[in-house]
Design a protein that fits this description.
Blueprint (H helix, E strand, L loop, with lengths): L5 H4 L17 E3 L17 E6 L6 E3 H12 L3 H13 L7 H12 L4 H13 L7 H12 L4 H13 L7 H12 L4 H13 L7 H13 L3 H13 L7 H13 L3 H13 L7 H13 L3 H9 L8 H13 L3 H13 L3 H13 L7 H12 L4 H13 L7 H13 L5 H11 L7 H13 L3 H13 L7 H13 L3 H13 L7 H13 L3 H13 L7 H13 L3 H13 L7 H13 L3 H13 L7 H13 L4 H4 L13 H13 L3 H12 L8 H13 L3 H13 L7 H13 L3 H13 L7 H12 L4 H13 L7 H13 L3 H16 L12
Antiparallel strand pairs: 1-2, 2-3
């Protein structure tokens, strides 16, 4: 069977200097900003939490960090070292090797050995500086001469490998022995290698064995493997396969890929153990997942016949998932799923749900999720609930979604809590209960869910299901904001801007708005632009104002579009440009902005940026007046002194008088009154009549309404062709409901030939006017690559736009994409998740 070469398996690794105190391990650390240095609420200390490989959670108290920074700036070398470690390891700050180098250098120049050791690593690996092996050797040497064990080990390693210095095994042995005398596990292992191979010292197997054992007993996985290797070959000890398997297993359980590969091949061949293809497969998969090439090659040659149990089939499927071979993964997982393995069934559902290795098929996904869910698989219960929530694979059914979310939550699937809160708040699938919604949002919030924290803060802010409390609202908005959630960041900006739950502070408001704005939050971009325009932080800065307001307007924010029009009209932060002003007013006006409609009417009336056109001016003035549901407010010249009355009959009578006089807005309004139940007897024939009158005059809302009645045969004989003709006229004039109707029609292909490209075009027109349903459908087309090039970033953008308007399926889809990214982080259509 294949054997690993001695030179490869004994290759020494860089050992970093130790961290002080509780943080003295290899760390996977948080990415909080330096805001944690500010005082937290209630005078409590926020900890900077770090997670070592062991899974424990030691912490560095905030007051210690503040002390380090203060002392480092005063020139204290230990504090400078601590700050350097913060940037090197990303403890409470973003990782920044250049900044780490700056602080280590300050400390090292004062003779601080630990900093000198870190500089050796930075120069050897080219982190924050150009790679320079000579400088690396210099810093390792300076630290080693002061007795720094890690630097001594790394110095020995450089002599052993000939990195930055001529290879010198005797010098390497001298340094390794010096470190090993302090019971340093990696050095003991390396010393064992040199004794075993006779490198830099006379060969001495007995001493090699002693060094390996000392290192292995301290937990060094390479030493465990090497000890097993000596027992397997009978070198220096009596050949003992049981002892060899024991040490190989201990090394494999510690994660050493070489030991995992070794065990896998032994179980397949039956050398010293009973033949067990299943166990062999398990260990080979573990090694393969770490990139061990021989293990991966071995796995590619093994067939399904050697993996007969569901667990063994699952293990191989997981291996292929790990390396991103989804087609191969699907073959193995389906075999396990067919044998009723719930985890494999859930994973098959996930593959079908996202179209990984199999065609995207929501119905098949739902079938597999249900099989696993009914076996009480918690994640499958959650996945099935999401499908019912979104109406994927079956019709949308909130009661079923609620029931499955509850079952998943009972098994500690924390992400179900946010959905349960949404359902309770809106009375979907269960009785409306805002207090219970608060309960679920709190559970999600306390688990660190940024959306849950945002929703809980919102409930406190508005006093929904709980007493209004701006301070608690601010607390949870801040928790959400610090987790990176842009909705929380935007609302923290609002809290500071308005002085709600916190002392008013425009500077902090700006900082929070900027954080959200840089993540693409359009209202935050608009708010930031307004602050610069108004001079909230000093003198107005119209150039910066224009920059941020334009970013917001480009995302379809109606307020920003209208404001941008005013800025181009007046030449604020830019050259005066009536044509651009007109374009932005029109975009906002088409989204229903009354102010923009007024402004657009004015542009047409005086001929600014567009040829003078009184008919168009009148049209937009009418639309602006319609926003108030009071036509008399702007058109008082038509009926001086006339105002809508409170009685439904009198209200209808008033609109009828205007309609008879030929006012198209009034005609459309009369049609709507007769169609709906507004205190008068519904009369669809009368609706049809008045919609027709307004539609003939070019009223886009009426064109859509008459088209809708004709299409569905309401109040008249059904005529889909005439109905579609009117709807197309309405859509061409920019009426968002008509554009959405056409988008759905082209996507479904029931009344017009299916065409996803046309669907995407109409959805986009309606989406850009703020129509959240269209935004949701457009996002789905980008997600699936239908009619547009598949683009997860664009899908996320439109899902977020719809979610901002509380469109629940968009909220669910956002969470689902985040889940997909966690499942398939290296997939080519994956993108960076946001909470």
């Amino acid at each position: 069977m294949p054997k690993q070469s001695k030179s490869n398996r004994h290759l020494p690794t860089i050992v970093p200097p130790r961290l002080p105190g509780a943080a003295r391990r290899s760390l996977a650390l948080s990415h909080r900003g330096l805001d944690f240095l500010h005082k937290s609420d209630g005078g409590q200390n926020l900890d900077v939490v770090v997670r070592p490989a062991s899974g424990q959670l030691p912490s560095i108290e905030r007051r210690n960090v503040a002390f380090w920074i203060r002392e480092a700036e005063r020139g204290e070398p230990q504090a400078q070292y601590n700050v350097g470690v913060m940037f090197f390891k990303a403890i409470g700050v973003d990782r920044d090797y250049e900044e780490a180098h700056r602080w280590f250098l300050k400390s090292a120049n004062q003779g601080f050995a630990n900093s000198q050791g870190f500089l050796g690593i930075l120069y050897e690996q080219g982190l924050g500086v150009e790679r320079d092996m000579e400088k690396s050797l210099e810093w390792y040497t300076r630290a080693a001469r002061q007795g720094n064990l890690e630097a001594q080990y790394n110095l020995g390693r450089m002599y052993y490998l000939g990195n930055g210095v001529e290879k010198n095994l005797k010098e390497a042995f001298r340094w390794f022995r010096k470190v090993a005398e302090c019971n340093h596990a990696p050095a003991l292992n390396q010393l064992g290698v040199m004794y075993e191979k006779g490198e830099g010292v006379s060969q001495d197997i007995e001493r090699a064995l002693k060094c390996y054992r000392q290192s292995a007993e301290q937990g060094n996985e390479e030493a465990k493997y090497n000890l097993g290797d000596l027992y397997e070959r009978g070198i220096g000890v009596t050949k003992d396969q049981d002892q060899a398997i024991y040490w190989f297993t201990r090394a494999a359980e510690d994660g050493l890929d070489l030991a995992q590969y070794k065990l896998g091949t032994l179980f397949y061949s039956g050398e010293g153990v009973d033949v067990s293809p299943g166990k062999g497969l398990y260990w080979l998969c573990k090694a393969g997942e770490q990139g061990h090439e021989e293990a991966q090659k071995f796995l590619e040659k093994t067939g399904a016949e050697v993996a007969s149990t569901p667990e063994e089939l699952l293990e191989k499927g997981l291996h292929y998932l790990q390396i991103g071979d989804f087609e191969e993964a699907a073959q193995w997982l389906e075999k396990a799923a067919d044998q009723n393995h719930p985890e494999a069934q859930n994973l098959m559902g996930t593959l079908y749900d996202f179209g990984k290795g199999v065609p995207q098929d929501s119905e098949m996904a739902g079938l597999w999720f249900r099989k696993a869910a009914e076996q009480n698989h918690p994640e499958a219960q959650y996945n099935l609930a999401v499908m019912y929530f979104l109406g994927e694979g079956s019709r949308r059914h909130y009661p079923s979604a609620f029931a499955w979310f509850e079952r998943a939550m009972s098994q500690n699937v924390d992400q179900a809590a946010i959905f349960l809160g949404i359902l309770c708040e809106n009375g979907l699938g269960t009785d409306k209960d805002e207090a219970q919604a608060v309960h679920w949002y709190r559970q999600a919030a306390e688990q660190g869910d940024g959306f849950g924290q945002y929703h809980l803060a919102r409930m406190f802010y508005h006093g929904k299901g709980v007493g209004q409390d701006f301070e608690k609202s601010r607390y949870w908005y801040e928790r959400s904001a610090r987790s990176g959630n842009e909705y929380g960041q935007y609302n923290m900006g609002r809290m500071y801007y308005n002085g709600h739950g916190v002392e008013q502070n425009r500077s902090k408001a700006r900082d929070w708005f900027r954080k959200a704005a840089e993540q693409g939050h359009d209202f935050a971009q608009f708010a930031l632009g307004k602050m610069y325009r108004q001079g909230d932080l000093g003198s107005p800065d119209k150039v910066k104002a224009l920059e941020w307001i334009e970013k917001s307007a480009s995302q379809g924010n109606v307020f920003a579009q209208n404001q941008l029009g005013k800025m181009y009209e007046n030449g604020e932060g830019c050259e005066q440009d009536y044509e651009k002003a007109f374009q932005w007013f029109r975009k906002a006006a088409e989204q229903g902005s009354e102010q923009a409609q007024d402004n657009l009417g004015m542009m047409y009336f005086v001929g600014k940026g567009v040829p003078r056109d009184f008919d168009q001016a009148a049209k937009w003035y009418r639309r602006a007046s319609g926003q108030k549901s009071s036509l008399a407010a702007r058109n008082s010249a038509e009926r001086p002194g006339m105002k809508p009355l409170k009685s439904p009959e009198e209200n209808l009578d008033w609109f009828l008088k205007l309609a008879i006089s030929g006012a198209p807005d009034a005609q459309n309004q009369v049609g709507m009154i007769y169609e709906s139940d507004q205190g008068v007897t519904p009369n669809l024939e009368a609706s049809l009549h008045w919609y027709g009158k307004a539609a003939e005059q070019g009223h886009e809302g009426a064109q859509y309404n008459i088209g809708r009645l004709l299409f569905y045969g309401l109040g008249t004989q059904q005529d889909r062709d005439r109905g579609l003709e009117w709807i197309r006229k309405s859509a061409a004039q920019g009426y968002a409901d008509a554009q959405l109707f056409l988008g759905i029609s082209y996507e479904e292909g029931k009344v017009v030939p299916q065409c996803f490209a046309d669907a995407a075009e109409w959805y986009r027109k309606a989406a850009e006017q703020g129509k959240e349903v269209a935004q949701y459908h457009l996002a789905n087309l980008y997600k699936k690559g239908l009619g547009v090039e598949k683009n997860i970033d664009e899908a996320l953008k439109w899902f977020r736009r719809a979610a901002e308007r509380e469109f629940l399926p968009a909220v669910g889809s956002l969470k689902k994409i985040i889940h997909q990214q966690s499942m398939f982080p290296h997939s080519k259509d994956s993108t960076s998740p946001q909470n």
